[in-house]
Protein 1
Amino acid sequence: MNVVKVQKQQYVTIKGTKDGLTLHLDDSCSFDQLLHELEEMLSLKQYIQSGPVIGVNVKVGNRFVNKDQRVKLESVIKQNRNLMVETIESNVMTKDEALRIKRETEVVSVARIVRSGQILKVKGDLLLIGDVNPGGTVIATGNIFVLGALRGIAHAGADGNGQAVIAASLLKPAQLRISEIINRAPDHIPSEGNEMECAFINNDDEMIIERLQQLTHLRPNLTRFEGGI
């Protein structure tokens, strides 16, 4: 009689990196099974508290981990060991998180003139079809694109995004600001021509004014279009 030995499925994989440990946790088993196997694997003597603290990055795949489960994972990993949880990464997010990301990345189109004393503020990218008059202000957490004259104040990356850009058909602002970098009087003032220009922050944290055509090289991730002509 042949006896078939069934190998136990492994739910936890531990990989050492130069920055610490990465734990890959299976997303097909129950959470309790996961905790049990994680406890068994970490009970090996090399993980008992001694020596310097080791950073741990936890990857849970397509499993949603709520607040209580995160606390349990951290407790099992840290208990009497020289391990510290740095991140817990999941491919799954809540509906609220998805809506927040959508708001922050969407393009808000507005057709109007922003006059002196007026402030137009949006989350995400702003596409303004109109002018920003002297004394007017436009603010966006993302990029700012003005299909018109920008003669007032523009603040892009208002939540700290230093990769944001400001572009306009006519770029003659009173002040430009990207994240925390302010440029009150751009070194290069565009001529009264038809050439659109843009402002961006370079690697030296300096605000630079360039022809709009340079944006594809400066910020290749600005467009999601990958087709060819």
Note: The chain has four helices and 15 strands.
Protein 2
Amino acid sequence: MGHGGDVIAELTTDHREVEELFGKIEALPSGDGQRKKYADQAVIELVRHSVAEEAYLYPAVRQFLPNGDGIADKEIEDHAEAERTMKELEAVGADDPEFDRLIGELMTEIRSHVRDEEDNLFPQLRSAASEDELMKLGDKVRQAKKTAPTRPHPSAPDTPPANKLLAPGAGMVDRIRDALTGRGKD
């Protein structure tokens, strides 16, 4: 979290970190408790990443791309589907048969979303926005990830201004819960 560079570099690095966690999950046998640990870490990163994209990237997509509203709406719907899956995943242990189904579903959803962003959205944005604008967006995304929630909140608003107002409070509560339970810690 918080890598530096423009918004595209920042978010692409996040994608690689989540994919690395997915690889660790896939390398372990079904039922292994470490799979839940890695899944929790992936969910933490995915939620922070999604909140930052919804607060800053997608409004920029709407502003800079001629078909930006449609693209942003589709990306937000992708996030909503993944968030529902993450919420279900949060409730099951690695030894629960549902865990394998849900983590597989989440990996499929996220990998498809990442491919779409990296192959389509990011190149379009790089062409349409100036390097200065992309750098400013990178800074905003990094700041948003610092206060973002760490747990899925499927019923929370996913567009400005409500998401920008509510996310830091939910993030604080989530970080307190994580500290008390040890979630997301090595």
Note: The chain has six helices and no strands.
Protein 3
Amino acid sequence: MSLPHAILTALLEKPSSGLELTRRFDRSIGYFWSATHQQIYRELAKLEGEGLIRALPSEQPARGQKKAYEVLPAGREELARWTAASQDPKPHRDALLLRLRAAAVVGTEGLEDDLRRHRDLHARQLETYREIERRDFPPGKGGTEDRLRHLVLRAGIDLETFWTQWLDHALAEFAALDVRGREG
């Protein structure tokens, strides 16, 4: 149920077309809640059908012109209701961790290289988040909206920091396994 709420949030921040929303998801919201172009357009149609958003009137009607959407009062009320509601954390599912567990019984062939690849991907994502932080959240920028957005970004930074550190540890364990395997 969170994609409609992500779209409502984005539209409250700035009325947008489906294409603009897709681009915004790629640059920001998508870092923690991804959606495809098709999913966004489907959800826009549902939200409009439910009376939560509306297409803004076009200045010059033209065939195939992109529609921009804005949130209606009912959409704001729904987003406020959802924001205030309690939710339990979702169980964590990660194929890499499952593969590591499986390697304990079938062998580690190819897994170390993939751990290195994952480590590189997480390190790049961490640097992207840190660059966003330097660019968008300089010291002293502290209004409520900015502080909450920065808090979301900090979650990404902290998660990527965790993953890079954990993968460093996992790779050190693999190196120790290789040494022990050659000795034994």
Note: The longest helix spans residues 144-183.
